[in-house]
Amino acid sequence: MDDHSSPTTLTIPALRSGGVMLTYRCTNKCKHCLYRCSPQQVDTWMSLDLAEQVFAAMAREPQLRDVHIAGGEATLKMDLLADVIALAVRMGVSLSYLETNAMWCTDGDTARESFLRLARAGLPGVLVSASPYHNEFVPFVRTQTCVEAAIDVFGRGGVIVWIPQLYQALAQMPADRTNTLAEFCHAAGLSDEIGAVGRIYGLIPGGRVLDELRDCYPARPAEDFSSCRCDGELYNTSHFHIDPFGNLFTGLCPGIAAGKIGDLHPQITAENHPVFWHLATGGPCALMQWARDHHNYQPQRDAYISKCDLCTDIRRHLHALGGFEEIAPDTFYAN
């Protein structure tokens, strides 16, 4: 965290490592998705003009190590994806990998040809998602095809399987069809089923987890989170994301735009970024009290599974009221 000499102004630290989200559109609607990507999301994509602004801003970041390309599912527009990769290379931004769920890998030849095209554009590697959450939508045979094709093109050192132990577990399941989460739990011998998968994967209790996987966690009254702080997450720029609308999200905190592409390090005050301010200086209960006092907020649940759950509940209320530019994008709250 920066040394904030002024008690009334906060600033986002230098960006270190992160991702460029080309879209929220995805072939999957995974239960664990932090950014609530899905086929129902608006079919909005980062334009090349905006991508140029993003990479220009990144090129000015003195501590930025690497950048990955993500979605949603960025391969849904392969032409745009190749152009974005080539643009990043031309502008001197060091790319690390492309994230993909492998749904598009219907056969090895197609997968290899596409990866070769992206490699020629300047892509150095691929991260392939492998989990029981993805397997509810993507047959394992496509995940395996993706991994093998990626190794052919990028070499083993250029391919990350996330998560490798779950990839091995999925290899024991029927490969030519999708499998439900319950089917995976049964085959893996997980006694308490969904809750155990939550621990194995290391879920972040935010995003769609709050709607689909609440049973993975015990719920507690809102006041139990009074000692929780959010500054560690909000000032964390080691895994930031910039979305197709130009919003900057720090610390895996989607839906709270810490900055915009026109100003990635704004002077944050209680007046211009009240949500970020109260979370960073006092945590979700401080935000809750402010929302109660000034915006008629009342908790919508008797208990919450995490501070992120409570924070999301408050932000949904504020988003419905309108007028909070930092609560973005609208699609995150509408979907």
Q: What is the C-level CATH assignment of the largest domain?
A: Alpha Beta
> What is the CATH-assigned architecture of the largest domain?
Alpha-Beta Barrel
What can be said about the biggest beta sheet?
Answer: 8 strands, mixed
Tell me what portion of residues adopts beta-strand conformation: 5-15%
Structural class: alpha/beta
Give the number of helices: 14
Molecular shape? globular
Structurally, the number of domains stands at 2
H/E series: EHEHEHEHHEHHHHHEEEHHHH
Radius of gyration: 20 Å
Low-confidence stretches: 1-6
Average pLDDT score:
95
CATH topology of the largest domain: the name is TIM Barrel
Strand order of the largest sheet: 5-4-3-2-1-6-7-8
**Helix proportion range:** 25-40%
N-to-C CA distance: 32 Å
**DSSP summary, beta strand count:** 8
Task: Please provide a written account of the structure.
This protein is α/β, with parallel strands linked by helices and 335 residues long. It folds into two domains: 17-223, TIM Barrel; 224-234 and 256-334, no CATH class. It is built from 14 helices and eight strands. It has helices at residues 48-59, 78-90, 108-121, 132-135, 140-154, 164-170, 181-188, 194-201, 209-212, 231-234, 274-282, 284-295, 307-321, 330-334; strands spanning 17-21, 66-70, 95-100, 126-129, 159-162, 240-242, 247-249, 259-260. It has an eight-stranded mixed β-sheet with strand order 5-4-3-2-1-6-7-8, with helices on one face. A hairpin with a 4-residue loop joins strand 6 and strand 7 (247-249). Helix 12 (284-295) runs parallel beside helix 13. The radius of gyration is 20 Å and the shape is globular.
